[in-house]
Structures are given as C-alpha cells and as structure tokens.
Structure to design on (1114 residues):
C-alpha cells in the first residue's frame, strides 16, 4: 500500500491477502497442480480464472471515531505524520491473515475498524501512547507484521471506545549485539528478513524461521509464542527471548537479559504469549548464534507416516540434535509434489525402485531433516540420522528437495489467496502432544476433520499434516485443511471443521496451539487445555494489570 | 526426629541443622582443614570442640493457636494421625536451613511457629486443606524437604491468623512413567534420592541434582525454580517440568504434560518459582531420560579463574554440550583441597610440574566437566573439551577428583553446622549473568564482600566462588561466604555481607538468584531485578489469585 503520510517507510502486506503486492501464486508452470486440486477438493482449475475481488473503493469503511483531544495528544506524542486515520491504513490494521480475516476483509465485513493507527518511533513514545490510551479509556491493540491467524489483532466487534492500532513498524533496528554473550537487542517491530540481514552482516543469526517469517516481527513472535522451522536447534521464541522491554500501564517493564533466573513466577514468561494484554513489547534481548559453518537439509522418504513419526522420535533422542525434523503425511507429500515445477527423470526411477520394493506410493511420506554446526558435527548428525532412517524403512533422496523446501518454505500462504479467488477456503491448525499420544492425535484429528466434512456434505474435503518441531517428550503436528464452498457461506463451514480439529487436539492430549497463540480463534478451548483453574489465574492476571480492559481486550480469555 | 504420630514415615532433617541425626562433619581425618580454617577465618580449631547447643527441652515454643472447628475439619480431611501439633514437629516446620534460620532455631528465636502441621495423602486432601484454609482465613505454608535457604517457609512474624504447615512428605511416589514420551508423573513430596531410586529401577533418571538433593523434594524444586549439577544437559527444573497439578484457591489446576504450547502467558511458568503463593503443587510431570551409557566427570586445573571462565564459555558453545561445567576460584580450590583426606604423591608431583611451568599455585583453579551419553558421544565431548582446556592453559588431572566430587557433593551443608558450633557463620548467594558481565560480576562481588568485612572489622572474612551451569548467553556464579562472629551478634554481620553481595549481583548485570528463589531473603532486590513494573505485575497476580493472603503470604513480593 502507498500511504502518503510519514509512516510510509513501514511495509504492510496487501489489505486483502498475504504478502506483497504483485506477488501471487500461479500454476501454469506446475503441471500436476490442477489435477491434484480437482482430486483433492473437487475444484476444476481448467476454466477461466476468476478475478480477484479486491476493489478497495467498493468497501464501506466505518468512519473513525476519536476525540480531538486524543488526536492532539497522540500527535503531540509521536508527531503529526505518524497518526493516521485513512481508510486503507485502518483496514490493514483491522485483521490478521486467518481465513476468517481474509473472508471478512474481502466481503467488506468490518463490524469494528481501528479509529486511528499510530506509528511510534521509540520506547518512550510507546509508553506515552499506552499511558494516553489508559487515561482516555481507549483500547490499544499492538500491531507487528499483521500475519496473525488467531484473531489477536481485531477490535472487539461491539467495542464503543476509541480503538488505537499501534503499529511497531518504525521500530525495526538491531540496536546492539553483545558478541561476548550472544545477545542482540532488537526493536520489537523488526521483521524477520530485516532482523536476519542486520545480524548476518555481523556474522550472527537468531535462527528463528516461522512460516510467517517474511512478514512478521520479533515483537509479534514474542507476543504469540512463535516457533520456527529450526527451533529444534535454536529453541522456540521463549528460549530465544532472554530479556524484554514492555510498555505497561504500570510503567516501563525492563527484564534484563539473563541466561536463567529464580525470581518467582516468570514475568518474562507472562509477556511471552501475552498478545498485547499486558502491554506493548518494545525491545527484545534475543539469543543469537554465530552463523554455522555448515547447513544442510536432506530429504528422505518413508513408506508410511507411522514409520516417519517413529524415526523423528528416535532422531529427537540423539545426542547430536539436528536443527529440523519434519515429516509430511502422505496427503501433504502429494500436495508438495503437486506444487513442483516438473518431476525429474531421477524421481521417476526412484519411484519405480520403491514400487519394486513393495512401497505403496500413495502412502509414501516426505521428510526433511536439517543439520547445522561444524563440518564434523554435521557429518556425524547425517550418519546417525541415516542409520535411523534405514531402521524405519526410509530412504535418503539427497539435497535437491531440501534446497527447494528451503527456498519455497514461505510461499504457501499465497496459495490460500489463490484458492479464495476460486471459492476455496484453507487454513491451518497446529498442536503439540507427548510422543505416546501422537499417533492418536494424528489419526483422530484426520478423522474428526473428515467427519465434519461428511456432516457438512463437503466431498471431497482436504486435510493434511506434518510433524515439525521435535522435543524430548513430544512433537508438534501441523494440519492444513481446505475445501470448496462454492455458493455456500464459507464461515459456518470453516467453523465446523476448525472446531472439530481443535476439539480433537484437546481430546487426544494435545494443546490448542503449539505456536499460533490463543487470540479469539482458540480461546474457546483454553479452559479445557489449562483447566478452569488455569484460566482463572490468567484472567486474574489480566484483571489486576489492566482493570480498565484497555489493552487488546477480548483476546486469550 | 521421632514423631509418635501417623506421619512418622515422613523423613525430616534435624530441627537444629542440616541432614540426618548422627551425621556430622568432622576433620580428624582431614589434616589440612584446621590450618586452612585458621588462615581463612581466623578460627583456631586446635582447642577443645565446643558442644553443639541443641537441647530441644530448653527451647520455649509458643503454644499452638487453632480453633477446635478447624482442627476437627483438618482431621476429618486427612485423618486424625496426620494433624500434628507437637512442639518439635512445629519447630521443624518453622524455618528452612539458611544461616539466619539456623541461628534463630538454635537461639530459640521463634516469633511465629506454625500452629499445626498437616500431612495430606493425596491430591484431593491437599485441595480440601487449601479450601479449608481459605474458608477459615488461615495461612497455609507448603513444606517439602525443608531445605530452603531464602526464607520461603517461615510464617510472617506478626501473623495473627492460624498458620498451617502442609507437609507433603507422605506424597512421595513416582505414579507413572510414560516410557514412550520420557515423562514421569511424580508426587510433589518425593525427595531426590527416592525419586531417582524409583526411576533408576526402571532405567530412567530425571537428572536433577541440586546441592540439597538428599533432602529436597520435586515439589520444592518446582516451587523455587531449582537447578541441578547436571542442568547443562538435563535443563533446569523449568525445562524438566512439562506438566503440573496444583491445589489452588480456584480449584485443582491441571496443566497436562506438553512438550511446548502457545496458550498465552504461561501458567506453568507462573507455578514455577511460586513458593506456595498460588497454591500447593501436588504432582509434577517430569521429563525423564534413559540412564546414559556412559557418565564421566573429569577434573582440570586452570592457572587462573579468568582462564577457567573463558574455557567454560567456550565449552558452552560446543555442539556436543557436556553435562557439567564447573570451575572454582582459587579460594574455593583451596577449600576443596583442605577438605581432602590426604594428598596423594601424584598430587605433589603435579604441583611441582605446574610450579616449574610458572603457575602460581595460590591462583590455581579446580574445574570439573561432566560427560554423558553414548560411548562415542562421551569420547567426542572429552576430546573437544581437552582441546579447549589446553588452549586456555589448563591441564587435565583425570577422574580421581571427579569421583570424589560426585560422592561428596552433597556434604558441604554439614560443615556449616560444624562452624556454627565454633562461632562461625557461613551461607551462600548465587546469581547468573551474561558472559560479557561475568568477570565484573565476579570481581566486584568479591570486592563488595571484602569491603563489608572491612567495614565490620571482620578480619579475615571469607568469600569464595565457582561457576556452575553454563548457558549459551551466560552462566551461574555461586558464592560462599563465612566469618567468625565470636561474641558479637552474628545476624547484623550476616545481613551486611549478604546485602553487599546481593546488591553487587544487581549492579553488575546479575539476577538476585539463579536457583534459590526469592522468599523473604531476596525480596528486597526484586524490583531492582525485574523492574518496579515487573514487581507490580507479580503483586497483581498474587492479589488476584489470593485476595485473602492465605497462601504463604509475605514471600517473593
């Protein structure tokens, strides 16, 4: 978007979808894609492409409601050019990028749009805006990259008070690297690529690569308990975040960077996942690592998903922990292969060999394992993994698919916008559970989604899954689901499928989300996940720190 | 102690000191000890040993104040024999084992003793006692092994309400091991040795060895954010604790065992370190590991503490993380050698060699590094560490000292009781900070302690230190201090030295405690550590969850 005001250095995604203007998914160079989609969700892509219905001028955006006093105060605090009330900017800040968000934004469904978007420039300005919002009894919603898919960004529909969206995009610098300690001080609005670029220049990496990497911020990662593709090595954001600064209603919170501490209930771990309800994260002291000597991602095929899961579990117990453990189920493997540009001759030969070995290619599962460290360490990891893969009937297929995965790993969300144009809805739900429950969690969740499809008369509906992020005691399972709604209202259909999946998570020993936060989308399951007493404690925390419900109210619980 | 009631299966430490009756420190077989002590703190141990002044019958124990109603209710809940009001049991439950506690208990200084000790048998009984305490507006203080040194166990001196000490000692079983996930369900009152015994029998270990191991419980570890000697490999208790059950005023809190989760501010991390202020921990889902194939502790000498610190930092960055990284400063090295039974001929030769190499033996520092895992992994770790040690001018001295350390690591607290008999006070303070601050943290803290001694006219006063627990971004520094008070009141002397050390921690980028909790002893530094806004959030949490201040009031903040 081209905003004409002073905040225009701040990058935003398309108001109507994922990513940057001009970049979109197309399948002309992917011969297997159309047949795959026809089979998967019954959608015929051979006809003429529908237009993308994204004419901003047709939307009716509610007028901004904000007092002159508050406008004057905000402008006095951050500067006139950084207080914005234009419609497009306000719409960009209304939602995240869940399928519910995309459906609503495309339909011009805006029960409540922020009244003003404020772009602060430093910690003090953020603190002043927090103080102003509380004093004026306004609602303040922090905004990072806007990639959230759990409803963490939207104003409560019935909110009558002024709603301020606080965009952190101007605060995008690595302020300092303590090279002795491996600690970088980073402004919260720094987006993934900017962060890595600034660190890489000096030989460092934070090693955090969530799917949203290209359009999410470190502050957003902290606020939602994000996890990245290499978290097996680098840790989740809760491990990476050693210190943090937050503008709270009680004044600036400063948790100094510490390797570990014994200071009672962890305030650091209260800020993690707090989605703006305790304050606005302004700075993060992130653990950083020297860029590794070697970094390799190898691909493997397993004859079944069970075999792949068992191999990943065994790999997670290795003394020489790999950086990525990932295995897709057969459906996701099919999807991945359908988005490839062309199959190599080598692939055809490989599949012949596997068939001859008795593999059912429809059950075959693609896996990626990442290796990082010194040359010797990487070679050791590889040989240990090779042995485990072999034990579980798998076969290594080299670096090729891994390189492709590494390059394309952030592109999937574009496919969702593409599907929407064609009347198809897709979203994701992910969970984590103990190893002992993982197969139940997988099979019962697939079943739950399919039962929901059947009940809704959706035939065929799609659900696929991969394991990512292995821990000593369990792993993350990441489900993607999609269906064609055609002329029907997609929202109740989505609700039904999403709910079935979420309930299956809880019923099978999983959590409501491994790394996508609670927001409004998952809050119905919070009490089941952490027990009613757990919800009560969390509600107590919010009530005590934000009695006026000024800080992103209605999220989490 | 020999209690005559039904709870007598519950093991308690001596009411007047550390450990079990009949075990005490003696130095007849340690020829270097007396000269060392003379030099270190000016105490002459050659005279006749003073008697241990521990005649319980001479103490004046305040009478129990509890209503008949509450007594009846408690007995109805846990059974008559598990509700105890006898004086010795109540005194045992009054304090932990800090030097302040030991001085007071020996002096019969009891401003407030619990009125009743209750021994519940299961989760439901604990919940009922919590509910009864809240309903009766009584104060409830959970009690594990009683080893706390931060004042977390004592009733507030001016407390006028009935004080209940809830002893978890009957709940001491490993209830279940989920062998597929590496998760043990353990009752909170299980003490270290009982825990490891039950796990080892089935081939598992939790790998958590705090100094208090022999007399502390897993519930206590969680309640204080404990760390153990092998935490470099097994993680601190916050890593080990994957799920937890807590009896809270809002009902039973059940956090299911999960490898990771994205459910907002972490309630699990609020329970960790909560010291009974949010409820009573009844069960822990602990991450457990298969007993390692190999376990070796090797000893090294470094020419200076700086060289040792630098080596430990470099070791912490290895891909093949060792299980223990520890280096003592020159003073602690001297202390360790003074408690040895006899020096070997080999040692004398070694020291000659080192002298010839130009080492100043008074600056020499002893280090232990632990190696665990498969045979290959251990051998790899050893050779990588060997190289780093060499680079920093250190020298390996084999397994001998490590075996000794492994056997004697839990005995140090007995020396404190011994010293007390002789009019000497000793205690510990530990912290953690980033690597970049660690030398300042060390030298300035030593200086702060020595300045305090000088101001107090204590000459010589003792302070020594070791690094334990390395992390990617920093490490723990563990200080032990001791002085002879003779005829003076030791308490203000202790306060002065302790305060100087704690303030130095904060002033030099360290935390108030790495693994000993806040309690009452460290709460004066909480706002400086986590900033006033952090304290405010924590106070808000406690006020919201325990508005009547029934749960261990006065601790943390």
């Amino acid at each position: 978007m081209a905003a004409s005001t002073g905040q225009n250095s701040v990058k935003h995604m398309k108001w109507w979808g994922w990513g940057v203007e001009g970049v979109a998914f197309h399948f002309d160079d992917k011969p297997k894609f159309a047949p795959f989609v026809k089979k998967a969700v019954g959608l015929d892509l051979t006809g003429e492409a529908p237009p993308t219905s994204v004419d901003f001028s047709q939307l009716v955006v509610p007028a901004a409601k904000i007092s002159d006093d508050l406008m004057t105060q905000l402008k006095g605090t951050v500067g006139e050019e950084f207080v914005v009330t234009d419609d497009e900017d306000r719409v960009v800040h209304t939602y995240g990028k869940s399928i519910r968000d995309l459906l609503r934004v495309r339909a011009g469904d805006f029960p409540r749009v922020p009244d003003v978007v404020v772009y602060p420039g430093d910690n003090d300005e953020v603190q002043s805006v927090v103080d102003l919002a509380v004093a004026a009894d306004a609602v303040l919603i922090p905004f990072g990259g806007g990639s959230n898919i759990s409803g963490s960004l939207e104003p409560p529909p019935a909110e009558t008070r002024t709603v301020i969206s606080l965009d952190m995009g101007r605060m995008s610098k690595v302020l300092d690297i303590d090279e002795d300690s491996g600690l970088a001080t980073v402004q919260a609005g720094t987006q993934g690529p900017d962060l890595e670029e600034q660190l890489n220049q000096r030989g460092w990496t934070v090693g955090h690569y969530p799917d949203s990497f290209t359009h999410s911020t470190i502050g957003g990662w902290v606020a939602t308990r994000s996890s990245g593709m290499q978290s097996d090595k680098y840790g989740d954001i809760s491990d990476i975040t050693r210190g943090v600064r937050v503008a709270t209603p009680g004044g600036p919170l400063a948790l100094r960077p510490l390797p570990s501490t014994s200071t009672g209930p962890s305030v650091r771990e209260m800020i993690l996942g707090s989605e703006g309800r305790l304050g606005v994260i302004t700075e993060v002291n992130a653990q950083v690592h020297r860029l590794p000597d070697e970094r390799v991602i190898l691909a493997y095929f397993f004859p079944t998903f069970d075999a792949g899961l068992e191999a990943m579990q065994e790999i997670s117990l290795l003394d020489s922990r790999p950086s990525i453990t990932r295995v897709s189920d057969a459906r996701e493997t099919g999807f991945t292969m359908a988005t490839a540009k062309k199959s190599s001759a080598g692939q055809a030969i490989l599949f012949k060999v596997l068939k001859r070995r008795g593999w059912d290619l429809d059950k075959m599962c693609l896996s990626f394992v990442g290796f990082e460290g010194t040359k010797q360490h990487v070679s050791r990891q590889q040989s240990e993994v090779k042995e485990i893969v072999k034990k579980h009937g798998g076969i290594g297929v080299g670096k090729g698919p891994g390189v492709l995965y590494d390059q394309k790993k952030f592109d999937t969300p574009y496919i969702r916008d593409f599907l929407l144009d064609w009347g198809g809805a897709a979203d994701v739900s992910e969970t984590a559970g103990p190893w002992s429950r993982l197969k139940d969690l997988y099979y019962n969740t697939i079943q739950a989604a399919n039962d929901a499809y059947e009940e809704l008369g959706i035939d065929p509906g799609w659900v696929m899954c991969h394991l990512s992020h292995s821990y000593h005691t369990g792993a993350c399972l990441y489900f993607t689901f999609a269906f064609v709604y055609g002329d029907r209202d997609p929202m109740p259909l989505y609700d039904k499928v999403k709910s079935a999946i979420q309930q299956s998570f809880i019923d099978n020993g999983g959590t409501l989300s491994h790394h996508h936060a609670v927001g409004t989308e998952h809050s119905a399951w919070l009490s089941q996940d952490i027990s009613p007493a757990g919800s009560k404690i969390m509600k107590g925390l919010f009530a005590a720190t934000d009695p006026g419900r000024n800080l992103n109210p209605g999220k989490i619980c």
In short: Chain A has five domains: 59-167, 174-290, 294-408, 423-512, 522-557. Chain A touches chain B through 91 residues (CB under 8 Å). The longest strand of chain A covers residues 424-434. The radius of gyration of chain A is 23 Å.
